[in-house]
Amino acid sequence: MNRKTFLKRLFQISLAGAFPVMYSWQIEPFWVEFVERKLPVKNLPGELTGKTLMQISDMHVGNHFDWNFLIKVFQEAKAFHPDFVVYTGDYVSWESEQQYTQLRKVMQYVVTGKLGTFGILGNHDYGKNWSERHIAANICDILESSGITMLNNTQQETHGLNLIGFEDFWSPNFNPLQ
Asked: pTM of the entire structure?
């Protein structure tokens, strides 16, 4: 193999290796989809026919990307006027207590449902090694003060709909029999 061929192949391999890094750093964090689906639910109370449920997940507020982007997304999401909103974890990418301040700022723009707003925690909401209960408790406090009812191994009935929320499977609090 001559030098020119070697350098060309080295460049190709470098590009192939750089793509996943660039994707996870500059593309995926800003990839937001608003998707509407009709989801028939057996035995749904008649008063809920035609109502909307919005799911928001994996916000990962932290220092790895500009989380101010989430404020714009929340403002766009509010235009859908959802009846129910469920937040399904990973509110932060934990590094330090700075994430509490960042999360509070984002949650000033929280999307709420007309009939209810609920949340569960994700593994990243438990700090390093997904094991720091005090971090999860503080995040729950921030979310609840923002109008989100946290379902930590609990259930709640609202408008004839029974919502069940488990702690994250990897967390020290996972206990679906509680």
From this structure: 0.81
